[in-house]
Structures are given as C-alpha cells and as structure tokens.
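Checklist before submission:
- one chain only
- standard amino acids only
- sequence pasted in full

Submission:
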Amino acid sequence: QHKDLIDLLCFRCIALTTEELSSGKIQSPTSLKMSATGFVGLGIMGEGMAARLLSEGVAGSAENPLVVWNRTGAKCTALKEKFPDKEVIIKSTAREVVEACGVTYSMLSTPAASKAVFEGDDGVLAGVGSGKSIVDCATLAEADMQRMDAAVREKGGRFLEAPVSGSKGPAATGTLIFLCAGSEDLFNEIKDSGLNAMGKASHFFQTQVGYGTRAKLVVNSLMGTMLAAFGEGLALSEAVGLDPSKMIEVIGQGAIATPMFGLKGPKMIAKDHAPNFPLKHAHKDMDLACGMAKGAGVEYSVMDQAEKVFRAAREDSDLNVADEDFSAVFEKIHKDSTSEFSKKRRLE
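Returned file contents:
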C-alpha cells in the first residue's frame, strides 16, 4: 500500500511538472539557456545594434538576457552601464555566448577579425551545437560566408547571412537594412523581433548563402562610387569659384539628390571625417565588389576606377585617413588636384 501511494504521488508530481513546463509557468534549465539572446562584436556597428535589442525590449529581461562578448571588454562594460535596468551578461569568450543562447548575432569589422573570432578555440563555432542559431551581420567575401554556413550546419546549427546596409547612425537608430540568405526558418523567427528592432527593412534573397553578400557588395560599391563622384564635383565647384554649400543645396533640390550627399557634403567641406563608416572598410567592400563583377563577366569600369581612388586614399600614409570616415576620400581628391583652391586647402 505504501509503495502504491508513493508511486501515485510520483506520478502526480511528474504530471504537474510536465503541465507547468508546457504552460510556461516553469522553465527548464535548457529553455532558460535557449531563451537568451547573444551578441558578439560591439564595435562601431555592433554597439548600436545591441543597444537597440535592449531598448526595444527584444532582450535584456531576466527571462531573456542579452549575453555579450567583445574583443575589447570595456565595450561590454559600457553597454551594461548604459542600461542599468536591463539584464546584460558579459562572457569572457565568444564560445560562451553561443553556448548560453539560442540565437547569437555577430558583427565583426573585418574578414580577418571575423575569421579569428569564428574559428578560434573559444570562438563562435566552438559553441555551436544542435539548436544553436548564428546570424552573421558582417560584410565578407561570399566564400567566407559559405564556409561559415557549412561549418555551423555540420554541427547541427542554423546560419543566417545578414549583412547590413547602413552605418553608425542607422545602427544606433534602428534604421539598418538587412540583406539575408541562408536559413529561411531562422529569418522568419527573428524578422519581426531582432531584425525589426535593429532595422527598418529586412530582405530574404535565397536559402543559398552568398546572395546577401552579393546584394551588399552591389549597394556598397555603388555608394562608394557615388561619394567619389560627389567629392570630385565639390572639388571642381570650389576650384571654379562656386560656393560649395550653395552647390550642395542645388544638388539636394534636383533629381540627383540623395541623403548621403546632404549628410556628408557639409562635413566634407569642413574636413570633418569622424568615422561612421571607416574608409578602409568601404574600400574593402568595393574591392570585393570589383572582384565579383570580374567573375560575373560584367563591365564595371566606372566602379573599378572609384575603387582605385579609394585604394589610393587608404594607402596614402601622408593623409592617414584609412580609419577616418569614407568621406575622407575627398582629401585624396584635393591632394591630387592642382587647382589653386586645392593647394590653399592643403595648407590650412
């Protein structure tokens, strides 16, 4: 009789626990782990993106903390201090972030940084297992994204390629544009939460990884080419005695008006190139785009020439503008110009 009573009590406990777990009243250790959101890389872009996940309530609660790691730990501390009312957990390795989370976003600045953080002994891949999801927002070569996708899927995880169109400002204000490929299920799960908090639009191109990168390289090579042409136009305006501020106004009123010209123009005139999108990163994207065009058999001479202008600016040790905003290509244009205005400007 005692044995029957004990068996009955155990059955009732198991049934109650199962019912409460399924109703969400009690969370298992596994569900607690999988409900956390991870972010790896809190640089110029990642800092603003992670902050949006917190400010928009996508992550940062006790039930769904934001788990972060950055190569420079001070960035993690600064984010935590900026949101004292949010649950932000700092980990010592990228692997620990992935292990603690269901979905981990990654935003690294260069191919070299991405490779090191992804493949390292304590890197992103080391933490991947069944049920883990990686959303990589960097701009890399198509082959790099495909290699990462294959490695994640081989370990039972899901991978979404999600490079962004936008720079520091849009990252901070949640107005990025995500260009995605890979796991469509993962895209559908996060498009109205994480991606919506960090961006104003999200596009899914293909389940085959690489198409997001292709879209991003087309956009950024066009953007760099436009800025180089704009810089030459401003330099010409100054050289022939036209007020550059007035010319920016004129350009902004016509069919060629773009937000970029309106935002960058006044700063270019004032030699203000505080980095929102570093020139070295802009050139990296343009170089990748030119290689993509060559491989695709596309005539790309205009953008190819713009890439050369950015390369020259990046490699000019006297100007030292590689880490400045990509608008600093304007300084290279003036340096290579022989007008009296350019000569005078270089001395100022």
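Reviewer check: The longest strand covers residues 199-206.
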